[in-house]
Amino acid sequence: MRIGIDARTLSGRFTGDRTYWRGLIGGLAAIDKENEYFLYIRSEIEGEVPSLGQNFTWRTVPRPTHDALWMQTAFPKALRADGIDVAHTQYNTPLFGTPCPIVTTVHDITFALFPEHFLPKDRFILNRFVPNSMRRAARVIVVSESTRRDILRRYKNHIPQDKVVTTLLAADSRFAPSSSPSMTFAERQESARLAANNKYELRGLPYILSVGVMQPRKNLALLLDAFALMKLGPLAPLHLLVIVGKRGWKNEELDAQLAKLPPEVVDQIVFTGYVPDEDLPVLYGGADAFCYPSLYEGFGLPPLEAMACGCPVLVSRISSLPEVVGDAGVLLPTGDSDAWATALEKLIENPNVRERWSLRGIERAREFSWEKTARQTLTVYREAAGTA
Questions:
Q1: Domain boundaries, the chain
Q2: DSSP state letters, 238-296
Q3: Which pLDDT score, from 0 to 100, does residue 50 have?
Q4: What is the CATH number of domain 185-365?
């Protein structure tokens, strides 16, 4: 079987779509030496090129440079030229002229469930193209049962249930407890904290971490409020709040919340901006807690990455996050900053509690692997190509 993958996002900075391709393609390379894979990109890959087997071929298709035109013209032409049996995309599929069945992965339908969190142009494009792509696709891969339920509920008259298949994600192997396994929890954390401090100038202080593109869905205004309640409370811990991620869109609420905080609290908040993926393990490993108060997630890789690194996690009790975290993290309501502040205080004030959550998180993260995701995805390819 010849499998074609629209791998263009591998040529850009790390995003959720790029992380998905790297993990899945790496998993497929580990488990499948028989089928042929053709990875279609438009420009050279920045940084480390994934190490793959002889059954993987890179195809550079540079034009057209417009994404939509590339998908509708160059991609089908390349699939036809290479005799592809089944192709895999994310979110989008060609409208016509496709020489083989298409599998598309849809990580979430936030654009339909929370339209107010999107810019009008993006909302229009996503609502116009993604549902139609799911209808045209031979199979739709989703990354959690939560997303599967949302899609089938929203588009129940257009997409059959057996067409939508769940394959859970995983954390990359680089996300693991830092330093030697013979070190104690406190020693590992101190080693990672020192490395994070040296790279990002965190003043040598303990810190609470959040990771993700800054956008309304991430609910960071609540985290700022919870942090302020904690810093201004009777315990007044020394901790910084370190927020990792580039600014996305519609950050007015976040900026307004930041403007309300006392200067002494604002001084304890560090915005790092975009951080290379290779720096994240030490940031996770050195944190006393990882907070993810998101209003909705299709999966939620950052909490899984944090758990894999041994960092205790606090997440919203909503959408896919309980599915990912299970009983290995603290689940909290999305609108109660007092609850978040209280949970954070209990966690950071007690090293024994942190260590227990750390060990539970490490064990939970081991239940996920890209090889498992790859096996499930390969089954979907066979079904879509009619070879199952």
A1: 2-170+369-385, 185-365
A2: --EEEEES-B-S--HHHHHHHHHS-HHHHTTEEEEES--GGGHHHHHHH-SEEEE--S-
A3: 76
A4: 3.40.50.2000
DSSP per-residue letters across 1-62: -EEEEE-GGGGSS--HHHHHHHHHHHHHHHH-SSSEEEEEESSPPPSPPP---TTEEEEE--
**Is-contact 94 67, C-beta < 8 A?**
no
Residue corresponding to tokens 């309300």 = 260
Asked if 79 and 4 touch (Cβ cutoff 8 Å), the reply is yes
Contact 135, 327 (CB under 8 A): no
Asked if residues 253 and 219 have their Cβ atoms less than 8 Å apart, the reply is: no
* 14 or 248, higher pLDDT: 248
In the block, residue with structure tokens 């160059």: 74
Which of 184-188, 214-218, 353-357 has the highest average model confidence (pLDDT)?
Answer: 353-357
DSSP letter at 317? Answer: S
Measured in residues, the chain has a length of: 388
Same fold, 2-170+369-385 and 185-365: yes
CB 11 within 8 A of CB 44: yes
Confidence grade of residue 344 (pLDDT, cut at 50, 70, 90): very high
Q: Does residue 14 have a pLDDT over 60? A: no
Q: pLDDT band at 118, cuts 50/70/90?
A: confident
CATH of domain 2-170+369-385: 3.40.50.2000
Q: Closest Cα partner for 171 from 77, 300, 276?
A: 300
Q: Which helix (H) or strand (E) holds 88?
A: strand 86-90
Residue tagged 């990455």 (tokens): 305
Q: Do 163 and 141 contact (CB within 8 A), yes or no? A: no
Instruction: Say if pTM beats, i.e. exceeds, 0.90.
Output: yes
Q: What is the pLDDT of residue 210?
A: 98
